[in-house]
Amino acid sequence: MINESVDKSKRQFLTTALTVVGAVGTGYLAVPFLSQMQPSVKAMAAGAPVEVDISKIEVGQLIRVAWRGKPVWVLQRSPEILATLTTLDGQLSDPQSNESSQPESSKNSARSMKPEIFVAVGLCTHLGCSPTFRPEVAPHDLGADWKGGFFCPCHGSWFDLAGRVYKGVPAPTNLEVPPYRYITDTQIIIGEEEKAA
Length: 197
Known about the structure:
- It is a single chain.
- The chain is an alpha+beta fold.
- The chain has 2 domains: 1-38; 45-190, Rieske Iron-sulfur Protein, CATH 2.102.10.10.
- 25% of the residues lie in helices and 20% in strands.
- It has 3 helices and 9 strands, in the order ααβββαββββββ.
- It has helices at residues 2-36, 41-47, 79-85; strands at residues 50-53, 62-67, 70-76, 117-121, 132-134, 149-151, 158-159, 180-184, 187-190.
- Strands 1-9-8 form a 3-stranded antiparallel sheet, with no helix packed on it. Strands 2-3-4 form a 3-stranded antiparallel sheet, with no helix packed on it. It has a 3-stranded antiparallel sheet with strand order 5-6-7, with no helix packed on it.
- The longest helix is centred in the N-terminal third of the chain and has 35 residues, at 2-36.
- The radius of gyration is 28 Å and the shape is elongated.
């Protein structure tokens, strides 16, 4: 009788020990396979939000940053530029940005959260070329109607300094405004929207 009770307790101990060792071994085998399914650090960084310091941008200056593999422009606009925007509505295809992609906080005539700072993805909505920044007024190659803006050299699309597309050009919609938010008055994060109150 004593031998039978000893054998049962040994058997119970061995069964429990083997179960624990098997579970730990399965975990060690599963970790590499599960971690392989996660996006790489490079892939996560490509889609990660980008912080931009706007404190040193001068009036009329455009800076470029990369977000999700795309160029994003940040432009400091002057009061004169903002005044010009309202005079162009009749020449624009979508002056109120009803057909365009932008966060709700940027759906206005300036297409921005704060009128003086404009943020846009720097890719033409026609075939994805990168327009050139042409802030000068009435240059000889663009004509007297040009009030400053973005010109796409690939197929000739025009955008004003709020990224709104002119009528009669190949680009179908205004430049995309990415999601962004202000951390402080001089710092923005591109890739995150303002949280709803």
